[in-house]
């Protein structure tokens, strides 16, 4: 691995800075202030992710 | 995953750099020292501590003395340690050869102790040489009123004689007022510029002084904030004759009639350790800042 | 995260690939809460020990004469309870949650972590009892006897095995900057701790090298263990809470590598003019100055990320604590540079200033960031929100003022103490006398911190017992009507 390659690998792409955001907590939405209206560990009808609700109620 | 390898190597590499640089290389440099000897192979310095002093070091460590007292003398460009007569020269790596752990310390709520066994705060060159009392006795001499010079409680006869200083460690404000070092039998009626010195009190840094100081620091140093180590002493009934070790305490601290306060073995060991603290021996690699006063006969002096 | 599935085969893949954040959070519940609960218990114990230690410095006859309460044993007991009990466990708990989230996979093998927490608690308990019984090793920040350290090592191997497994099974191809720091911390710690134990106890180095190894360890623990976890946490929390990505990822990378390179060389800064080869001291002083580079990059990054959004600190507890901590990190580094310079070290070296410096790092920086992380994470574990905004505010202000007062008293007092100590015209006890008023103020600040910690522990206890708020709106500190109304 040449030095140039090493530096290239050290310098990660900017895409990595958005890794912590996801569909439910996307870029631009503040968390910890205004939370999605949903119960924490129970899948409720509030979820509007489409026809599939992947799992049933989850016991904490 | 490729980026991960680089990350791993970088993380381990930067740390290895510091580990090698700050511990391994210095260890190669100063981690395998030998005691210094003169041309005939005599007078090794330093020497390992005797049994009692060694145990005393453990007592020192276990009770956290290191959190208030240092044992390193800085050079005069680094601080006023030498001005305060805490040592005649700066400390060097060789001084700590046999110390485990090396108790350099990092805090001074109390004074530095590097040379407390040796302490001879003499400014006057005309003062009589310190009384040489080489002794292999481990227990301090029975304290007699007025003359409390105890022989050093170390079994190593090669270290220079220790003498208890009669003056407080710091010189008087302004002019130097030398306090003559008192020979063993004279009563210490010295006027001290600061701190109390009552006739009949033990000489500062003598064994008796240490015991009294550990038992009740503020009886020996008025404004001390050192905690009392009373648990290193026990109160017991006087059986027949009073013990020679018994502490002579002031009236309001003295035990009730028929009882005496004696040091435990740990206390004796601790004091033995304190009396053994002496870095005054000259080292070839360190230039002394002040002329070294005459040592006990037989000791090579630079 | 997978997109909305549109066909049956994609649904299957979606089911497999789509990992609910709540699922991840739920899977981390037991291990993280175990570490957090343990950490907070040690925080309370350490705080009580701290109070005793502080008061005894200016009231030496307080509870004196009892062997296991003598000041020289209480002080290391306090330090170790805080370093290994509170700080390390809070850090590990936070790291577990962060790693699970960033791996985008549920936590597997929780038993490894549960056992790890148990052993860690045991190690700390055994170590503290040993210190109070007079068995301290005499090495600062390493006073636990080797048998207690061995228990900590067992605990740590369990935790790090888990971390390796999690990392292997992670879903994302990208590695977020927080993971760099956490990976660093978890690789550096065992090497640091293990090497030090060997060099001090197993194959002991000679004489002053012990002190060199001791301070190499202590500084590296601060920077490479606590510093790395703290910085990694801040890099997650600040962007996450505001909802904006880190300003410059390249800057973050530069900050990480310069940090790794320089911070690990600062160990000898506390031993200026000691009995060591001069080059070691000089190297450490130089490294301390060079750490300004990573500090500046991190500070700049956080500042630019938050620019225009600082007012959100009014509402988010996490943001408040985290930003306080990030700012304290900058101050901590600058103070470190100042006290290392030879001209200043002459005055500050053997004074209480170094205690102030340590607290700046361990409390104002690390602990405050941990508090912020806990305020974010705990509701996501117990499924409830924090009940009383007023208690959170009280916690923040008593901690902020408490540590601010403490650090300033110790730094200024240290200067006064050092000035008198270096004036050989004054008797030595004058220097001790001159710092006493500052120590009394420090005890006052300690009382503030005690109040703060007990409030937090009480609030946390409520969460633990399911007594938090079940409202779907989070607990924010100064509610705006508009914010409450918004449904998302």
Structure description:
The complex is a heterotrimer of chains A (60), B (302) and C (488). By secondary structure, chain A is low in regular secondary structure. Chain A has one helix and no strands. The termini of chain A are far apart. Residues 34-60 of chain A have low confidence and may be disordered. By secondary structure, chain B is mostly helical. Chain B has a domain at 197-276. The longest helix of chain B is centred in the N-terminal third of the chain and has 29 residues, at 2-30. Chain B is elongated, with a radius of gyration of 22 Å. Residues 120-198 and 290-302 of chain B have low confidence and may be disordered. Chain C has a domain at 15-174. The longest helix of chain C has 38 residues, at 21-58. The radius of gyration of chain C is 23 Å and the shape is globular. In chain C, helix 10 (292-306) runs antiparallel to helix 11. Chains in contact: A-B, A-C, B-C. Chains B and C meet through helix 1 and helix 2 of B and helix 2, helix 3, helix 6, helix 7 and helix 8 of C.
The percentage of residues in β strands of chain A lies in: under 5%
* Shape designation of chain C: globular
Radius of gyration of chain A (Å): 19 Å
Beginning-to-end CA distance, first to last residue of chain A:
47 Å
Low-confidence stretches of chain A: 34-60
Helix and strand element order of chain A: H
- Amino-to-carboxy terminus distance of chain C: 19 Å
The chain-level structural class of chain C is mainly alpha
